[in-house]
Amino acid sequence: MATSARSIAPDARYAALFGRALPQLPGARHGAIRRRREAGFERFLALGFPGPKTEAWKYTSVGPLARTRFDLASRPQLRRADVRPHLVQGARHLVFVNGHFAAELSDDQAVGESMTICSLAAALERGDPTVLDALAEADPERAFSALNEALVGDGCLIRLGDGVVPDRPVQLLFVAIDQDPPAVLNPRNVVVVGDGARLGLIESHIMPDGGRGLTNLVNHVVVGRGAELRHDRLQIGAGAGTLIGQTQYNISADARLTQSLATLGGGLVRNEIRAVIQGGGIEATLNGLYFARERQHVDNHILVDHAAPGSMSDQFYKGILDDRSQGVFAGKIVVRRAAQKTNAYQSNNNLLLSPDAEIDTKPELEIFADDVKCSHGATAGELDERELFYLRSRGLDPATARSVLTFAFAGEVLARFGHPAIAQQAKAGLLDRLPGGAALGELA
User: Fold this and answer.
1) How far apart are CA 322 and CA 247, in angstroms?
2) Residue-wise burial string across 63-101, b where 16 or more C-beta atoms lie within 10 A, e elsewhere
3) Going by DSSP bridges, is the β-strand pair 326-335/342-352 parallel, antiparallel, or unpaired?
4) Cα(299)–Cα(329) distance, integer angstroms
5) Cα dist from 199 to 31, 74, 172, 217, 279, whole Å
6) Which residues lie closer than 8 Å to 103 by C-beta, 6 or more apart?
7) In sequence order, which residues have a C-beta less than 8 Å from that of residue 297 and are 6 or more positions away?
């Protein structure tokens, strides 16, 4: 396995894994899909994993992933009761266990001209052209996207025709169960919201145990002209599990996008978001909360690309870091020469609960237009001693007082979630990780 400053060659076992997987992956009987997979794997081998001198991965090391022996994911059987705590009542549920669609835990799928909500594997088996287009549009310079293109097994296809508004939100629940050797999961979600359509999308990733598996996620999202998408995302991790994901938003004129993301733990989590503003009158809001403890590592890498005039974007992220954990925030706003009358804002505030916790934050503006309003800022600090003293004077013990202030710091992001039930799950997950949080349940 060759290593350079900029790339790390994958272990030969990746080629063996791909060889075993290819004949049994969805869509194997379609030559076009098979060729896309083979081209993706060749590109993955050529790119290699990002090395320590790759600027975008400067603070996040993935070298161990190149050496880990991963296997295909098993299909563990879960009961409805096992996933019920993570389901949002009133939503249409599609549940995936170790990357496999679990029909027995999911609601009915919909396949029609005006609305399709179904397993991606089923769409691949049909040779659905929307999925083929999404595979072809994968980031050509990103190794993890190439690996996903080669090994994608399942996920969701959501396609709404012009003006369609589903009667309930859609929840995608991904549950990663440990196995030995660890599994590499490659889910891909393809979401196309037609002109004037509206969608409430809830995306949940649950890693309930301390496994060493890798979830390599790709979301491909198109928001049509005048459409509206509220995308609530919750990630709850434990132990050494790894989640690396990229979400690509292509947004058309007069559309509304609101993404709210809460990442609560995980051995290594990296969320890459790229939002391309392709027209005027767009409002794009990206909210995020990340919490890490022990030696967990959470990385948020965001690019908002204003390619057209007269639109607005806002990045609002907060981080909470305890013990020896590390957080990374790299947020970039690009305003192209044609994108006059752009308003773009970015804020990243971090709370360090331990002197050993680390935050690396890098807000960036790259502006080529002259008639714009843009700002960015980042802070890192500790809990306010005066506020702690006040709570102590009201009878709270030190741990509970710290947890109350920490929860309040996070609340501004959690209040921005579109669906109250998933916000409630995020609040409960945060309290469960705070000292004495169980006694503060009424705050949720």
Assistant:
1) 27
2) eebbebebbbbeeeebeeebbeebbbeebbbbbbbbbbb
3) unpaired
4) 6
5) 33, 32, 13, 21, 20
6) none
7) 60, 267, 268, 269, 325, 326, 327, 328
Between CA 89 and CA 94 the distance in angstroms is 13
Distance of alpha carbon 364 from alpha carbon 374, whole angstroms: 11
| Residue 435 near residue 442, CB atoms below 8 Å | no
- pLDDT for 212 equals 80
Residue of 300, 315, 246 lying closest to 268 (CA atoms): 300
Three-state helix/strand/coil letters over the chain: CCECCCEECCCCHHHHHHHHHHHHCCCCCCHHHHHHHHHHHHHHHHHCEECCCCHHHCCCCCHHHHHCCCECCCCCCCCHHHHHHHCCCCCEEEEEECCEECHHHCCCCEECCCEEEEEHHHHHHHCCHHHHHHHHCCCCCCHHHHHHHHHCCCEEEEEECCCCCCCCCEEEEEECCCCCCCEEECCEEEEEECCCCEEEEEEEEECCCCCCCEEEEEEEEEECCCCEEEEEEEEECCCCCEEEEEEEEEECCCCEEEEEEEEECCCEEEEEEEEEECCCCCEEEEEEEEEECCCCEEEEEEEEEECCCCCEEEEEEEEEECCCCEEEEEEEEEECCCCCCEEEEEEEEEEECCCCCEEEEEEEEEECCCCEEEEEEEEEECCCHHHHHHHHHCCCCHHHHHHHHHHHHHHHHHCCCCCHHHHHHHHHHHHHHCCCHHHHHHHC
The confidence score (pLDDT) of residue 240 equals 74
Backbone torsions φ then ψ of 255, nearest 5 degrees: -85, 165
- Widest CA span of the chain, in angstroms? 71
- Around 91, how many Cα atoms within 13 Å sit in the side-chain half-sphere? 27
Close Cβ partners of 53 (under 8 Å, ≥ 6 residues apart): 5, 6
For the chain, residues with pLDDT lower than 50 are none
Of 89, 175, 157, whose CA–CA distance to 117 is shortest? 157
Provide the token pair at 372.
Answer: 């714009």
- Would you list the domain boundaries of the chain? 385-444
Q: For the whole model, what pTM was predicted?
A: 0.95
For 398, the token pair is: 């030190």
Looking at residue 280, its pLDDT comes to: 98
Residues 268, 295 contacting (CB under 8 angstroms):
no
pLDDT digits (tens, 9 = 90+) for 114-151: 999 999 999 999 999 888 888 877 788 999 999 999 99
Q: Which pLDDT does position 6 carry in this prediction?
A: 78
